[in-house]
Every structure is written in C-alpha cells, then in structure tokens.
Design a protein that fits this description.
By secondary structure, the chain is of the alpha/beta class. 27% of the residues lie in helices and 20% in strands. The chain contains 13 helices and 16 strands. GO terms for molecular function: oxidoreductase activity; zinc ion binding.
C-alpha cells in the first residue's frame, strides 16, 4: 500500500510499504477513505518530537471502512464506516474508566521511554506520533491497523460526508475540550484564543456554542483571522498591535475571563523571551517556544482559566508563574479525551449546529502530501487544513 513516511527532519515521502495485518485478536484493519494533516504533524516534520525513526508512517486523523476484525472484536464488523480517535485507549484501566482516555495506562508499549523523558509518567499511545507514544503506524496511508478496536472506532451510520465527520478524530474534540474545560459562564465570559489554526478555529466556535459572550482570536495570518471573523469572533493581529494592550482594552481592563493556547511549542512572537526561546531551541536545550503561553498567562483575568490544547514537549522555564499565582489562575491541559466527545459532537453536526468542513482549504492525493506538508507549515497559498484522499 501507499503511505506517507517520515524520512528524517524536514523529509517526508510517499512509499510503498507492506499492508498492515492483525497482530492481536482485539485489532481491526481499516481501509482509509479520508485522512488529514494535523498542525501537530508539523512538530514531527520539524524534528521537535524525539524518537521518530526513518520509515515511520505518519498521520493520526483518519476514517474509513472496516475490512477485517480480530476474533475478539465484538462491536465492529466488516463494512462498518468508522472514525478513529487519534489516541489509543484500552477502556479498562482506571484512567479510561474515569473518562481520561488520553491518559490510558495500557496503550503505550513504550511507556518507559516516555517516563524517562517526562519525569516518571506516560500518556496513552498515539497513532503515527513517535515511538515515545507507542510507535504505532499512522493513518496517512491506504490501510491502518487499529488496536483496541472495540474501544476507539466510532461508527458513522448517517449519510454525512467524510469531510463533515473526519475531524471528530482530533481537531474538533480538541478545540471543544479546550473550551469546555474553561467552565464558560454563558452570556458573561470573554474567551481569547491564541492561534487561528485548525484547533484554534474549533476552539473559538466551541466557545461560542458553549455560550461565550465574546470570543477574541489572536494570530498574525490574515486568512486565518478572516476565517475566525466569519464565525463572529473579534480578531487581533499581534504583528500590528500590542496584544496585551488590545486584550485589556477589549475587556474593560480586566482581561479575558479564559484564555486558550491553541499554539503550543512552536509559537512565533517578539521580545526578549521569544529571542531566548529561539536560542535555547537552536542550542537543543529546549523543545519549546512559549510566547503564546506567556501572553495567555499575562492577559488572563484574575481567577480565570488558561486552557492548553497546544502541544508542548519538554521542560519549560521563563514562565511568568508569579503572575499566574498572583491572579489565581486555573491551568487545564493535556491530550484530548477524544472518545468521550465522539457521540455528543456528532449529534451537534447532525443537528446542523456546525459543519466542520468549513476549515478545509486544500484537498489532495496521498502522493501530494510531502508538498502539502511544506505548504501547510509555511502558511502558503492560504493553507489552513489539508485533507488527503488515499485512493486519488
């Protein structure tokens, strides 16, 4: 089959590789009908996430048709159309039973590697996202092996198009969880979203669905700000005005009640902190550029929430913890517990509250993926979201 392969930092290719096979009786094989490039895939392209190996298959946003199931799979059958969460969960460990699926104790076979890097803890496994997170083959391919097949895949039984449900696999639940964990007081609270990429777009719309009185989106890319404005958000271009001053002025001086950092480890910005971040990354003593997180803490109102769906990869210093402490901020973060949101968010799509395909700007074949990775990373050609057809 064809698959998008990590060939080294800044090297992505399409290669012919062996088809996946069932390894465990709880596995399924899915023939992929649609897949996408996620903003977090760019961290792999740029070499920001350690433990990638040449030959790894990329991709964690995908859906398709079940073509084979293991003997112990009870909930799926051949022919089912499914979306598959980007993270793997066993469904029976304590975190899974409490709904914290991304913290699964059993789905990361390389947990010792993660524990060594992250101070003794490991999250669950992820499709196509380094060996720290299990080394699972990803879904930018024609077929994929899906472990824990009775837990993750979610059947789509309506006639909704792939493009309307594909993003249930990651960016829609990720944006929604980021907004939900703010505890928005409907009709009162102002929510600021740093980053108008795909997750930021869904976080902004989710905040609106949850009743935010106003949503403010901050970025520097005009077409991304325009997409946020189309949904009714106020926007700030941080290259044209001082973002902290603009947020104070927009909120009567108190700051946004909640701030979502939908940027993560590769934030752009300016000032001494941004310069020091860049120097530390180039010296390979840090993974993270944290300008967006600093701004989030500095701008958030007293008693507010800083919600962090953006990915961070290492140890962080130069964080304004004094300001966070003084204001009594609440921090919420982590990988998305995707499984818990599939049903509720599908219901919102079926009810016509949102059509997630609004975010798609580019459609391409799998063979075009290497070029589209660069287009997406460099924000050329108005690129915000790329969907790939593995059979085109």
């Amino acid at each position: 089959m064809k698959a998008v392969i990590w060939q080294g930092t800044n090297k992505i290719g399409v290669e012919t590789v062996p088809d996946p096979t069932l390894l465990l009786p709880t596995d399924a094989i899915v023939k992929i009908s649609s897949t996408a490039i996620c903003g977090s895939d760019l961290h792999l392209l740029d070499g920001r996430i350690p433990s990638m190996e040449k030959g790894d298959i990329l991709g964690h946003e995908f859906m398709g048709e079940v073509v084979e199931v293991g003997r112990d799979v009870k909930k799926l059958k051949v022919g089912d159309r499914v979306v598959v969460p980007f993270n793997l969960a066993c469904g029976v460990c304590d975190p899974c039973k409490r709904g914290f699926f991304s913290a699964c104790d059993n789905s990361n076979p390389n947990h010792r590697m993660a524990e060594a890097l992250y101070g003794g803890v490991s999250g669950g496994g992820l499709f196509g996202y380094s060996h720290i997170y299990g080394g699972y083959a990803g879904g930018q391919a024609q077929y994929v092996r899906v472990p824990f097949a009775d837990v993750g895949p979610f059947k789509i039984e309506s006639d909704l198009r792939d493009e309307q449900v594909l993003f249930l696999t990651d960016i829609f639940p990720t944006g929604y969880q980021a907004a939900e964990q703010c505890g928005i007081m409907a009709g009162r609270d102002v929510v600021a979203v740093f980053g108008a990429g795909p997750v930021g777009q869904f976080a902004a719309r989710s905040a609106q669905m949850l009743g935010a009185a106003q949503v403010i989106v901050i970025d520097r890319v005009p077409e991304r700000l325009k997409m946020a404005e189309a949904a009714g958000a106020m926007t700030i271009n941080y290259e044209q005005e001082d973002v902290l001053t603009a947020l104070r002025e927009a909120t009567g001086g108190r700051g946004p009640d909640h701030v979502i950092d939908a940027v993560g480890m590769e934030a752009h910005g300016h000032g001494p902190g941004a310069l020091l971040d860049e120097l530390q990354v180039k010296a390979k003593i840090s993974f993270d550029r944290i300008t967006a997180l600093r701004w989030a803490i500095m701008s958030c109102a007293k008693g507010g929430t800083v919600s962090m769906p953006g990915v961070y990869g290492g140890l962080i210093d130069k964080l304004p913890m004094g300001a966070a402490f003084a204001k009594g901020l609440i921090f919420r973060m982590g990988q998305t517990h995707t499984h818990r949101y599939l049903g509720p968010l599908l219901s919102r799509i079926e009810a016509g509250e949102i059509d997630p395909s609004f975010v798609i700007t580019h459609r391409a074949t799998l063979d075009q993926a290497p070029e589209l990775y660069k287009t997406f990373r460099d924000k050329h050609d108005g690129c915000i979201k790329v969907v790939l057809n593995p059979w085109g």
